[in-house]
Design goal:
Helix 1 (2-33) runs antiparallel to helix 2 and helix 1 runs antiparallel to helix 6. The chain has helices spanning 2-33, 41-62, 68-97, 110-113, 120-127, 144-169, and strands at 138-139, 142-143. It is built from six helices and two strands, in the order αααααββα. A hairpin with a 2-residue loop joins strand 1 (138-139) and strand 2 (142-143). The protein starts with a helix and ends with a helix. A two-stranded antiparallel sheet has the order 1-2. The protein is mainly alpha-helical and 170 residues long.
């Protein structure tokens, strides 16, 4: 019975991560379309990483987790986009810490890069943004890349805590 409860805990952890990802993505869209913050290329990469974490967690919640191998695959599937997103956020914060005029360019906006791809009209609102990566935006006095790092680190802590708890019993 304990193994079943623990596996349910890991599955609930994955559902919680998926819900947290939805809320985080919604916050990203609200900040862009309601508050008027213009995301940069690196912000869009972080948004896509949040969506990938949520999709991986949702998929993993439906995956069979009766074995340690299955739970490990699920934990890794959630961790990979989280680590990537945290790396992008740390890099963006590094760019923002450079003296004005010395920061490298972010690159062309995603809408420019992908405008000729199929179904562009469908996903264009997700990748729209022309902001400058070197100019920080703040929420509650904290730069947005720091919030991203906190989100990704929290996801990593949650998924691996659930994995260790399931491993200890299972």
């Amino acid at each position: 019975m304990d193994g079943r409860i623990t596996m349910n805990f890991f599955r609930k952890t994955l559902w919680g991560i998926a819900a947290l990802s939805v809320l985080t993505a919604c916050g990203s869209f609200v900040s862009q379309y309601v508050l008027g913050m213009n995301p940069c290329v690196l912000c869009i990469l972080q948004r896509l990483s949040v969506l990938a974490v949520g999709l991986a967690a949702l998929s993993a919640a439906f995956f069979r987790q009766s074995s340690a191998f299955g739970r490990t695959v699920c934990a890794l599937a959630v961790s990979i986009p989280a680590v990537y997103g945290a790396g992008v956020a740390v890099y963006q914060r590094y760019i923002q810490s450079l003296p004005p005029g010395t920061a490298p360019e972010c690159g062309a906006p995603w809408t420019f890069r992908l405008r000729d791809w199929p179904l562009f009209e469908w996903y264009e609102p997700v990748i729209r943004g022309f902001g400058n990566c070197a100019v920080p935006d703040y929420l509650l006095g904290v730069p947005l890349p720091i919030w991203s790092v906190l989100y990704f680190c929290f996801v990593l802590l949650l998924v691996w805590f659930g994995w260790f708890k399931a491993r200890a019993v299972g």
